Amino acid sequence: MTSSVIPQSRQTHRTVLKNGIVVLVVENPSADIIAARLFIRAGSRWELSHQAGLSHLVSAVMPKGTERLSSLDIAERVESVGASLGTDSASDYFLLSLKTVSADFPEILALAVEVLRSPTFPEEEVELERRLTLQAIRSQQEQPFTIALDQLRSAMYGQHPYAFSGLGTAETVAQLSRQDLQHYHQTYFRPDNLVISVAGRVAPEEAVAQIEAVLGDWQVPSDPLPILDLSPIQSDPHTVIKTQDTQQSIVMLGYLAPSVNANALDLSDYTALKLLNTYLGNGLSSRLFVELREKRGLAYEVSAFYPTRLDASQFVVYMGTAPENTAIALDGLQTEVDRLRSTRLTPEELQSSQNKMLGQYALGKQTNSQLAQIFGWYETIGLGVEFDTRFQQEVAAVTSEAAQEAANRCFVEPYISVLGPAAAIDLLGKQE
Amino acid sequence: MNLNQLSRSTVVPFPAKILKLESGLTLIHQQVPATGVAAVDVWVKAGAIVEPDQWSGMAHFLEHMIFKGTDRLPPGSFDEVIENRGGMTNAATSHDYAHFFMTTASQYLGDTLPYLGELLLNAAIPDDEFDRERDVVLEEIRQTYDSPDCIAFEALAESVYQRHPYGRPILGTEEILMQRSPDEMRRFHRAHYQPHNMAVVIVGDVAQDDAIKWVERSFPAFPSPLTCPHSEPEAEPPIVGIRRQELRLPRLEQARLMMAWMAPGVDDDPLQNAYGLDLISVLLAESQSARLVQELREDRQLVQAVGSSFSMQRESSLFTITAWLEPENLERVEALICDRLSALMTTPVSAIELARSKRLLRNDYAFSTETPGQLAGLYGYYHTVAGAELSVTYPQRIQAFSPEDLQNLASQYLSPYHYAAIVIKPL
């Protein structure tokens, strides 16, 4: 069976402006909508550990004032044409996103660019968003899954920025100053560090001209972009436990897993593990779902994730289960991961995982926002828009042998994170 | 202005076809060429409101059990068939409906739809699978009880609807689920999963003839209906005075204030009030420039966040306002919200603010109808609660509201003296 026949022929037009801005345009006339994503090569990976949360705070305060406009002015301009304009900080990038009906695009693009280029970070807005961020950090403690993932991340990444939640910590956020925000902005927000990805009802040359009109005069600063010097990630698998009187226990196994980056000519382990992640955790027919939920009724939510990252990523399997099943759940997850090392996928399992992965990849490129996101992201993290095709070809080429070898390299010993009531945790200790 | 008149005189063409098949099953179809995708969404008017009290949770539990196969299909085989072809499937249950959806490359419609039809018509509900899947549902219930927002909302619904089944949790409770049997579920299934109660929506790269052919083949003969106990939904009397309830929860980092007002369902006054309340909700707290967001979050800085929502239901809709805040600000924020609701009744909304709110809702409609799957969901939902063809009139009808209309709606439905409130505080 061939995998997906959903049309993949949409062409991506790539233009580099004189000041280094990369513009990607996918013309998609099907709806009267344009979505755009402005990617800056920054994000929490670029934070110093004593400034964790800086990118998030920048993203929260950025749309709250420019040299000409107040916070409310900006919100009213966007919303009076029913558009959306958002800022977001991720691990490997910083993002401004906008979405409009086609006719309003130039106006909202110009506004987004004003926010991008000349935010003033008003002192009172910094204080407000800092307070709200501190509260949000506390509120994360209400969510068992978040706590379990936080402690897993912290165990796996040590001093590397991936160790922290995007919000930062109470200690670091309390110390951030307006000057820190301005400095971050001055350092990373520059034309040679910007990718703009547009999808929707617009001709490529028209979109490029509109972007050129509002950004063509932005000069590249004379000083070079700073070189990121990150502390290496040391492998030291261990167990972290949080006792909490919850209804469910949360159990997670995590393995350090391959990154992608521009220099990696060979992404075979990355692709093979992406495929194994699909096999284990994606959908109602996935291995974890069938074995641990359908056949044993241990969980409502049981899954796996393996995000694409510039530095060492994490391959995580997890579930929520009744406290008395905590040890069984841990054992069940471990057994399923270990099985991938000892047992090759059958040809049917391999083919079915490939079909699933490629089909869902295609289904994930239906809206203009999805299209703008995926191409802009590939360009930003150095894989280039052609990675869209390459990824699909490489997934189709993964063999059972390659998957097993990748599993043997990656799944050596897990970091373990458990959260649950004391009785369940005590039981766990006795069994180990 | 009489809005019903306007909606009748201005025809918005419905881009899909609504067909009644010989079996009595409804098919809603729209061809969207060049997408390469077929989205199927099957809607069944068998949500939690058709359950008698002692069967609470049955509709949702059945939604899980549908995937457990038939005499001809082993458990999980449909999931494999669709996912092996790169498609996806899932299902959801609410008070008014259960629905089952899948999206696949359009060429695989014929390979996959017969499986979905077989599951929905001939669910076997095997005894051993019933016991095991009940454990999964109990895990789902446990997960919601680890979420303060879920606990708060459940308490709020229960406070608003003291007689109507809208007040019951969709998932049911462990106590009730443990008393139910596979045989009772089979009766529930055979009573409600009947053609007059169901609509199949197909949107995407599929011609009408093919859609009809595949639906007729996939949903050929419904098993003869069985009877099962029905609920007799009582009309919910209006809320008189302020019903306030306070809960204290462990591990809580901030308080919640949830306020709710009952609004009419869609039966007697199709959608008019609902759309107006949608507008009021946007204007109050659904955008950055909205009144309560600006005042409570930005200016007075009394809340971490504030939001509002209008949830349209068949028999009675729900308008809610929720604030996340420090416990010491609870009373002040509740008083301010009530005061701002009074202002809505007495002072007409400005032309600029009204235009902005309308534009947000009209664009939101455009933004959420981009894909075949979104369209199929929209038509199925409207078919179930009101009428599929009404879905596309939304932007135009939103546009027709005047400041006086909103003033009247606020006066009628959003009284600062009659509402339900749930307050959650740390232990």
TrEMBL record, chain A:
<dbReference type="InterPro" id="IPR011765">
    <property type="entry name" value="Pept_M16_N"/>
</dbReference>
<feature type="domain" description="Peptidase M16 N-terminal">
    <location>
        <begin position="23"/>
        <end position="165"/>
    </location>
</feature>
<dbReference type="GO" id="GO:0046872">
    <property type="term" value="F:metal ion binding"/>
</dbReference>
<feature type="domain" description="Peptidase M16 C-terminal">
    <location>
        <begin position="176"/>
        <end position="356"/>
    </location>
</feature>
<dbReference type="Pfam" id="PF00675">
    <property type="entry name" value="Peptidase_M16"/>
</dbReference>
<dbReference type="InterPro" id="IPR011249">
    <property type="entry name" value="Metalloenz_LuxS/M16"/>
</dbReference>
<dbReference type="InterPro" id="IPR050361">
    <property type="entry name" value="MPP/UQCRC_Complex"/>
</dbReference>
<dbReference type="Pfam" id="PF05193">
    <property type="entry name" value="Peptidase_M16_C"/>
</dbReference>
<protein>
    <submittedName>
        <fullName>Insulinase family protein</fullName>
    </submittedName>
</protein>
<dbReference type="InterPro" id="IPR007863">
    <property type="entry name" value="Peptidase_M16_C"/>
</dbReference>
UniProtKB/TrEMBL annotation, chain B:
<dbReference type="InterPro" id="IPR007863">
    <property type="entry name" value="Peptidase_M16_C"/>
</dbReference>
<dbReference type="GO" id="GO:0004222">
    <property type="term" value="F:metalloendopeptidase activity"/>
</dbReference>
<feature type="domain" description="Peptidase M16 N-terminal">
    <location>
        <begin position="31"/>
        <end position="173"/>
    </location>
</feature>
<dbReference type="InterPro" id="IPR050361">
    <property type="entry name" value="MPP/UQCRC_Complex"/>
</dbReference>
<dbReference type="Pfam" id="PF05193">
    <property type="entry name" value="Peptidase_M16_C"/>
</dbReference>
<feature type="domain" description="Peptidase M16 C-terminal">
    <location>
        <begin position="182"/>
        <end position="361"/>
    </location>
</feature>
<dbReference type="InterPro" id="IPR011765">
    <property type="entry name" value="Pept_M16_N"/>
</dbReference>
<dbReference type="InterPro" id="IPR001431">
    <property type="entry name" value="Pept_M16_Zn_BS"/>
</dbReference>
<dbReference type="GO" id="GO:0006508">
    <property type="term" value="P:proteolysis"/>
</dbReference>
<dbReference type="InterPro" id="IPR011249">
    <property type="entry name" value="Metalloenz_LuxS/M16"/>
</dbReference>
<dbReference type="Pfam" id="PF00675">
    <property type="entry name" value="Peptidase_M16"/>
</dbReference>
<comment type="similarity">
    <text>Belongs to the peptidase M16 family.</text>
</comment>
<dbReference type="GO" id="GO:0046872">
    <property type="term" value="F:metal ion binding"/>
</dbReference>
<protein>
    <submittedName>
        <fullName>Insulinase family protein</fullName>
    </submittedName>
</protein>
